[in-house]
Amino acid sequence: MKDFKVIGLMSGSSLDGLDIAYINFSHDNKKWFFQIIEAGTVPYTDYWRKQLSEAYNKDVHELEKLSKEYGRYLGNITKKFIYKYELSPRLIASHGHTIFHRPEERFTLQIGDGQEIADATAVMTICDFRSED
Predict the structure, then answer these.
(1) Which of 4, 29, 78, 80 is most open to solvent, judged by the fewest CB atoms within 10 Å of its CB?
(2) Which of 10-19, 70-79, 118-127 has the lowest mean pLDDT?
(3) Residue 22: strand pairing partners
């Protein structure tokens, strides 16, 4: 059985905080299994609640800047999580924070630049999962 240790990041519209989990996925060539090893929520500061709740009002340049800043924030939180629990993730999967989601119009936008997360953690990061919605 092969193991894949992954960190997952998720932020919802409730703006309560960043959900973060360290999960071991394993596969026996027939079926996938998972085990949550560590998980928690890092509450947002007033600054981040305000930035994320008002992001839909920003122009494209401000959104790009916010996405990079939020990505750095996610990366730093994740780096602390890795050190705190002495983790060795194979990759980080970040959903990001949804600013717009209109699947009926084939349009969605999640912010939280994946490269910024990867730069802060030195861990391969995947993101942009909702584009096909």
Answers:
(1) 29
(2) 10-19
(3) 7, 38
